[in-house]
Amino acid sequence: MMSAANEYDVVVAGTGGSGLCAALTASVLGSRVLIVEKAAVIGGTTALSGGGAWVPGSKYASQLGATDSRDDVLTYIRAVSPEGWHNAEDARWVAFVDHAPLMLEFLEAHSPLVFGPNRDPDPYVEAPGGKAFGRMVSPRPLSKSILGSWKKLLRGPVYVPGLNYEELVETSLNVMPLRWLARFAPRMIARLATGKTTLGNALVVGLLKGCLRAGCDIWTESPLTHLEQRDGRITAVHVQRNNETQRLGVKKGVVLACGGFEWNEELMAKHFPGDFGWRGSPQTNTGDGHRLAVEVGAKLDRMDQALIYGTTPKRYEGVVRGVPASDYTLPHSMIVNARAERFMNEKQMNIGLAFDERDATTGAPVNLPAWRIYDAQFRKKYRHMLPKSGLGATRFEDRTLDGLATQIGLQPVALVEAAKRFSEFSRRGIDEDFGRGTSYWDRNRLGDPRQLPNPTLGSIEVPPFYAYPFKPSLLGTKGGPRTNERGQVTDENDEVIGGLYAAGNLMANPFGSKGVGAGSTIGPVLTWGHICGLNVHAEQD
Questions:
Q1: Nearest CA to 496 among 227, 303, 233?
Q2: Where in the sequence is the domain holding 90, given as residue range(s)?
Q3: Among 58, 93, 106, 529, which is disulfide-ready with 101 (CB 3.0 to 4.6 Å)?
């Protein structure tokens, strides 16, 4: 018989938002919980994120004067999700909508986290059930000092230190940085002096502190390597720790929450062929949880889904990563493919869908490689936003569009025509091809309010002209083990694998690549972690 020291009620793999939320939930309810983390630091992809969470139906909506309902949220999700997905995902959509506001209340009750609302709109406000604001929240700044010695194990951020989500997104910081940074300087200095962190880092600080308070054991540099199964359920795990394998009994279940597979070259070649540029997540996201789940009979699903974003390269932990960029949403810029054609509304939230359009025969992306094109007007107004050469990417410059096209291997006539047509649209304020600047989202988020008649359109006609490669990055894959509405992993026959749960970017995501709102990665990540924590705790010993 296994000793109590080598046995836990619940084992959670991964210390991102979903893993920590699952562990906190189960531990607060009374389970003995162990969290194992492959990396030497804690926080996963969540620590690198903006921290904003799409949590429809929360108590915070009323603080902004917003009105919402469960029916409105479900109507919206069903209206904007990919065609046909309701056949497989509706039960999980309902579970998310019902649990998301409860998850938020639970976190605030059992951790130092405090959330606040912001005015981010749904990206498809015009769709049935869409809302102009009230469904998005973000964590308030937290001091890393509350972690004590654990703060040394916190994964560092990649964003501007000291600013929270609202200060970055709800202002004109991207177009008038000096004005806004001068305004924010006192609070940034105060946060620096008190060790406060923001965005996804603050979210991890609060979750980690909650887990420590609740009595969770946490092991870093300890990957989960094997799941033992007996009579159809998980009964033990193997963990590699201190250069040896430890076998631990599991009385209730295991929650796999150890990230996507975007750093697994074999899986990437199979499910995302072509050049997807930089990755935006920790290098430890190599699909370990996917392998473990398959070994015990799990069904993998939605493996072609991911959070794909336009990024700029930044060196982090010795590796070049993709950090979300917003230069291409500003006037006097456009994106073209290798045929020198615009192929999308550059201002839309789900820009990754256009880059992930695949050839039906080869599966390769049809719009890559792609280029960001700017002119001198962009450089004059937004010099700080114009990408620079370096870290494996080169910015090209020429006095003519013909010359610029030749430098980057495009047809000169096609690029000149694309810029001419775009400039004509900009003068009229109407993008007749892709509707850039038409929707509420386009007009009210990350544009330039000084630009008339359309805050996101500006001509490209003043030399010199610039080109910079557009390398869409995978911030996280969203395919993996199929789960039911309780977070339980199912097999090829849609039968539950006893004692096995999955959450976060590891699970087959019910929203997939098409985000239904800003923060509709983090919101579901936390919610599914909470759902898994509730249900794994309720398992019979």
A1: 233
A2: 4-223+478-537
A3: 58
CA atoms within 13 A on the CB side of 503: 36
**Which residue type is seen at 204?**
V
Considering the domain architecture, whether residues 348 and 398 belong to the same structural domain is answered as yes
Q: Tell me how far apart the alpha carbons of residues 441 and 444 are, in angstroms, rounded to a whole number.
A: 5
CATH of the domain at 95: 3.50.50.60
In the chain, the number of structural domains is 2
Q: What is the mean pLDDT of the chain?
A: 94
Last residue of a domain, one of 474, 506, 528: 474
According to the model, what pLDDT value does residue 144 have?
95
Q: Is the Cβ–Cβ distance between 61 and 117 less than 8 Å?
A: yes
**Rounded to an integer, what distance in angstroms lies between the CA atom of residue 309 and that of residue 326?**
10
- Whether residue 261 is contained in a domain is answered as no
CATH of the domain at 350: 3.90.700.10
CA angle 427, 468, 379 (to 5 degrees): 50
Instruction: State the pLDDT at residue 1.
Output: 44
Cα 235 to Cα 1, 228, 400, 526: the distances in Å are: 13, 6, 67, 26
User: Shortest CA distance to 9 belongs to which of 304, 310, 236?
Assistant: 236
Q: Does residue 127 surpass a pLDDT of 50?
A: yes
- Examine the pLDDT at 2 and tell me if it is beyond 70: no
Residue whose structure tokens are 């003043």: 462
**Distances, alpha carbon 418 to alpha carbons 329, 333, 487, in Å:** 17, 12, 47
Tokens at 186, concatenated: 């006192």
- Give DSSP secondary structure letters for 451-519: SSS-TT-----SSSEEEEEE-EEEEEE--EE-B-TTSEEEBTTS-EEEEEEE-GGGS--SSTTS-SSTT
In a domain, 337, yes or no: yes
> Span 67-87, mean pLDDT?
95
Given CA atoms 330, 335, 341, 342 in this order, what sign does their dihedral have? negative
Identify whether residues 458 and 506 lie together within a single domain.
Answer: no
**Mean pLDDT for the stretch of residues 414-418:** 98
Each residue's pLDDT tens digit, 90-100 = 999 999 999 99
Q: Answer whether 0.90 is exceeded by the pTM.
A: yes
Residue 288 included in any domain? no
Note whether 95 and 485 are within 8 A (CB). Answer: yes
Q: Per residue in 182-198, pLDDT tens?
A: 899 999 999 989 999 99
Q: Report helix, strand or coil for 393.
A: strand
Give me the mean pLDDT over the 416-425 stretch.
98
Judge if 378 and 522 occupy the same domain.
Answer: no
In the numeric block, the tokens 């080169």 are attached to 394
What confidence score (pLDDT) does residue 463 get? 98
Q: Which of 433, 458, 474 is the last residue of a domain?
A: 474
Same domain (yes/no): 443, 500:
no
Beta carbons within 10 angstroms of residue 317's beta carbon? 12
In a domain, 500, yes or no: yes
What percent of the chain is predicted at pLDDT more than 70? 99
Please report the pLDDT score of residue 161 as a whole number: 67
Instruction: Supply the pLDDT for residue 160.
Output: 66
Please give the pLDDT value at position 170. Answer: 86
CB count within 10 Å of CB 142 equals: 24
